[in-house]
Amino acid sequence: EFAAGDRVQFTRALREEKIANRTLGIIEQIEAGGDVWIRLEDGRQWRGNLERMPHLDYGYVMTSYAAQGTTAERVLVHLDTDSPGVSRMVNQQLIYVVASRGREDVRYSSMRGKSW
């Protein structure tokens, strides 16, 4: 369940409200009936109902694809190096995308607990 102060992301675009898929925001208030106020990263406020708008998820973690075009103070990158076929997925493009998201700090880890 969401609570005030949670960071969330929209998991589909809301064209009429001009909210893109993967837009991030902070929940400011939730009422008993499910009405919610979310402050978007661009400063706008969105009001809706959680029952009628199931396309919200926590915004603390996202894929490298979804992170393109975003910036964060700190980035933690976890690569599942034990998965089959991971060598095809970890390439220069992936490393560039994830490494260029962090303004202050970028840290990497793998399944084996190694940090780079």
Question: What does this protein look like?
Answer:
The chain is mostly beta strands and 116 residues long. The protein contains three helices and seven strands, in the order βββββαβααβ. Helix content is 14%, strand content 36%. A five-stranded antiparallel sheet has the order 4-3-2-1-5, with no helix packed on it. Strand 3 (35-40) and strand 4 form a beta hairpin. The longest helix has 8 residues, at 92-99.
Helix content: 10-25%
Beta-strand percent range:
35-45%
Terminal-residue CA separation: 35 Å
Low-pLDDT stretches: none
Tags for this model:
single chain, 116 residues, mainly beta, two-stranded parallel sheet, 14% helix
Summarize the structure.
The chain is mostly beta strands. The protein has helices at residues 64-67, 86-89, 92-99, and strands spanning 7-10, 24-30, 35-40, 45-49, 56-58, 72-79, 102-110.
Secondary-structure blueprint of this entry?
Blueprint: E1 7-10, E2 24-30, E3 35-40, E4 45-49, E5 56-58, H1 64-67, E6 72-79, H2 86-89, H3 92-99, E7 102-110
Parallel strand pairs: 6-7
Antiparallel strand pairs: 1-2, 1-5, 2-3, 3-4
